[in-house]
Automatic annotation (TrEMBL):
Its cofactor is [4Fe-4S] cluster. The keyword Flavoprotein does not apply. Binds 1 [4Fe-4S] cluster. It catalyses: (2E)-4-hydroxy-3-methylbut-2-enyl diphosphate + oxidized [flavodoxin] + H2O + 2 H(+) = 2-C-methyl-D-erythritol 2,4-cyclic diphosphate + reduced [flavodoxin]. GO terms for molecular function: 4 iron, 4 sulfur cluster binding; 4-hydroxy-3-methylbut-2-en-1-yl diphosphate synthase activity (ferredoxin); 4-hydroxy-3-methylbut-2-enyl-diphosphate synthase activity (flavodoxin); iron ion binding. Its EC number is 1.17.7.3. Belongs to the IspG family. This is 4-hydroxy-3-methylbut-2-en-1-yl diphosphate synthase (flavodoxin). GO terms for biological process: isopentenyl diphosphate biosynthetic process, methylerythritol 4-phosphate pathway; terpenoid biosynthetic process. Pfam families: GcpE (PF04551), GcpE_C (PF26540). [4Fe-4S] cluster binds at residues 310, 313, 356, 363. Keywords: 4Fe-4S, Iron, Iron-sulfur, Isoprene biosynthesis, Metal-binding, Oxidoreductase.
């Protein structure tokens, strides 16, 4: 049984058995095995800009990213990595950093040993690690450096930079077949083979399977499901899930959630990233929040208290319940970094903010603490339920602020010093 990190509490409630992969340590985080699915993200700053990169890594980690990938594309960025690592440690952030290497990763890791040491994992793409006769040599150089520094490697295939020699060979073989497959099927097979053949070569060089994570990024939902299903059937490597070029806004969220949700439900996937294109000037941490919400909604992890709120209808013309639900949810996310330390177990809290008497009292009883606000034509009073029992009825113009205080008091009593005081009594 692999040890589960205490910061990654959670459970797996799918009716499908969890695919048990080989566990891979990535810094202080374990990926795969019996460990919960890990959330990760990637910066979009110039890594050579130490201040900007430290700020964004800190923001992503504070939002809940347990692993953060940074681009290492030239000497200046490689030289900055150990300083970024040092600054993060001074901030008390033990977040594993993954170096994203393309084309010249072998040279950068060799020329900058402090970078090679500071990173928790190397990510390489077999489609562009090198070309023609240099490909295997440069791939081997990175694997040997990973062995030297005892670092895991993510072999990340991407269909936008797929090994063309491999794809051409498989296409030619398919044409000669008595039962040729479609071009999409051959491309999927090439993606899977690229990952597995690269992993096999890495193991032959001496990198143990306990130091290898595989990914196979595509941008179409059905392709992602097919490719990872094939990978899961043909290996026990730890798998990183991600729909590449998922897009902006709701499109990216829906596409990523639909594809990864199906795979996760079948027990496939050890770590995930929701790759959202930010709006201009948008918040990079949005992709972390979506990843957490996907895992929490499916019942695989518990990150923040759940706020249940009705969608509203003709009975709920007042916007009070909408504003209250939004404010409580925002306050929870804002306070979670502190609450996680101060109130162990607070992520299991369930709050209900309902807009009328139809389902309000029932939903509130199911929550740990819930309120049923008055709807159109109802008496201007709001019953509050705590642990399934009616605790009080709020009235007057300050219903929202009064309920906020009750939520704060409940958290303190259940998860904080109040809990210890009650136990002593």
């Amino acid at each position: 049984m692999n040890e589960v990190s205490p910061v990654m509490t959670g459970y797996f409630s799918s009716p499908f058995p969890r695919r048990v992969s080989v566990a891979v340590p990535v810094g202080s985080v374990k990926v795969g095995g019996n460990n919960p699915v890990v959330v990760q993200s990637m910066t979009n700053t110039d890594t050579a800009d130490i201040d900007a990169t430290v700020a964004q890594v800190a923001a992503l980690h504070k939002a809940g990213s347990e692993i953060v990938r940074i681009t290492v594309d030239r000497d200046e960025s490689a030289a900055a990595v150990p300083h970024i690592r040092e600054r993060l440690e001074r901030l008390g952030m033990d977040v594993p950093l993954v170096g994203d290497f393309h084309y010249i990763g072998h040279k950068l890791l060799s020329d900058h040993p402090a970078c090679a040491e500071a990173l928790a994992k190397y990510r390489i793409n077999p489609g562009n690690v090198g070309f023609k006769d240099k490909k295997d040599k440069q791939f081997a150089d990175i694997i040997e450096l990973a062995i030297r520094y005892d670092k895991p490697v993510r072999i990340g295939v991407n269909w936008g930079s797929l090994d063309q020699e491999l794809l051409t060979r498989l296409m030619d073989e398919n044409q000669r077949s008595l039962r040729p497959m479609g071009a999409d099927d051959v491309t999927r097979e090439a993606i899977v083979q690229s990952a597995l053949l690269s992993a096999e070569l890495a193991e032959e060089i001496g990198l143990p399977r306990e130091r290898i994570i595989l990914s196979a990024k595509v941008s179409r939902v059905q392709d992602l499901i097919a490719v990872y299903t094939m990978l899961a059937q043909r290996s026990n490597h730890a798998l990183h899930l991600g729909l590449t070029e998922a897009g902006m806004g709701t499109k990216g969220i829906v596409a990523s959630s639909a594809s990864m949700g199906i795979l996760l439900q079948q027990g496939i996937g050890d770590t995930i990233r929701i790759s959202l294109t930010p709006e201009p000037g948008g918040d990079r941490t949005r992709e972390v929040q979506v990843s957490q919400e996907l895992l929490q909604t499916m019942g695989f992890r518990q990150f923040v208290p759940i706020v249940a709120a009705c969608p509203g209808c003709g009975r709920t013309t007042s916007t009070v319940f909408q504003e209250l639900a939004q404010k409580i949810q925002a306050d929870i996310r804002k306070n979670m970094p502190v609450w996680r330390e101060k109130y162990p177990g607070v992520e299991d809290l369930k709050v209900a903010v309902m807009g009328c008497i139809v389902n309000g009292p029932g939903e509130s009883k199911h929550a740990d603490i819930g309120i049923s606000l008055p709807g159109t034509g109802e008496t201007p009073s709001a019953p509050v339920f705590i642990d399934g029992q009616k605790a009080t009825t709020l009235r007057g113009p300050n219903i929202a602020s009064d309920f906020e205080r009750m939520v704060a008091d409940y958290i303190e009593a259940r998860y904080g010093r109040g809990k210890e005081r009650l136990a002593a009594e």
